[in-house]
Amino acid sequence: MKIILDPGSCHMGKLEKALELVRLGASVGADAVKFQLLTTKQTEGTGNINLEWDFLPELMDVGERYGIEVFASVFNIDGIRWLTKCGAQSVKFSYGMSGMLHDPKVKEAIKGFPDAYVSLDTSKLMPPMVNLISLYCVPEYPVRYKLDF
User: Fold this and answer.
1) Cβ–Cβ under 8 Å, residues 59 and 24
2) How many domains does the chain have?
3) The pTM is what?
4) What pLDDT score does 127 carry?
């Protein structure tokens, strides 16, 4: 069993907060920390805060130093390509990508990932794939929270 932390929007869009979450994940013995490759437009009205895609290589470097994998959920083929370019070992597909996984270009783009994850509720929508792993995810997402600052 792999323990994967999903900090959601807890990074507040700031690199230092995201780095802190990677270090925290390592300190509690998690196997991986998964961020989300959302764009600002994709976060409108969702309660999510996007993480700059350019932060991912540094987050992965810090993860490697601390012995914890860092990867991301993707919401389009550009996200898959960015994870590949950054050298990610894993990818998580969002619910919205379930239909896109039938696209030959998308299938080709994900071949390089040893691990590809989907949440249990979307795994039945996915095409057969050798490296597809189902995850148990929080039942309500995004997690509702109130910021006090």
Assistant:
1) no
2) 1
3) 0.81
4) 53
